[in-house]
Amino acid sequence: MTLQTTSVAASSPAAKPPSKVLVELARRFAAPLTFLGLIALWETGCRLFDVKAFLLPAPSAILASFTGLSWSVWLGHVWATLSVAATGYVAAVVISVPLGMALASWTLLSRTLYPLLVVVQSTPVVAVAPIIVVMFGTDDLPRVVITFMITFFPIMVSTVTGLTATPAEMIEMSRALRASRHRQMLHIRLPYALPYMFSAFRVSTTLSLIGAVVAEFAAAERGLGYLIFFSTSFFKVPQAFAALSLLVALSLVLFRSVDVIQRWLFPWSLGQASAGTAAG
Questions:
Q1: What is the mean pLDDT of residues 142-154?
Q2: Of 49, 98, 178, 196, which has the most beta carbons under 10 Å away?
Q3: Where does the chain have alpha helices with state H?
């Protein structure tokens, strides 16, 4: 009986000390706890120093400002910004990925077109936005064009970088097996470039919302960017912060959505990306 009890006690896992449990909880919930701590510090500072709402509203004032507009109005502004950002983002992906593949495949095209794309990207979009509005009108098209211009270049550059970073021995092996350029691109270069491309896809989700907001600052009658501009014009700063918080939430959701898509469709690319990072 004593031997059985001793063997059971030896096989059962030892209880973790409370200090290690607290360290694990702190590591797991470090980000939300830090965020809540900053919100509490912000609220306390505004109340303690009696900061005016039109200078820096307290989080409680920002939360209360959501009741200043009906939920249908809020949803209308959110949908206006989200639809423009999504349209420009999808257009950037659809155009930049094939273009990046073409630039990585043909040296002459890369030497001819790549400098022109760099010049276009170097042009400040904020300065060009009014010109684009004059050229394309005041509907959603100029806002989509502005969003496309901001999100296009990072995706294209990352696609070219990933395709050209394919190990030379893999290319030589495909040539030895007499694989066509088409099969070489689809089965060797493109899978290897996916980690680079998804990194750009994640970053571009945030850039698409920035482009939509910049476009709404230039000319719009709806959208979260328009609401921020309108609210600050009438010193409704808590309402502007409320719209800004929705933009941050949308950006986080879109960023996380791309990560989920990568884990769902291409889980092997996550290991490849970490291995490449470790090797670098």
A1: 93
A2: 196
A3: 2-11, 18-28, 30-48, 59-65, 71-105, 107-122, 125-136, 140-164, 168-176, 181-184, 190-218, 224-233, 237-265, 268-279
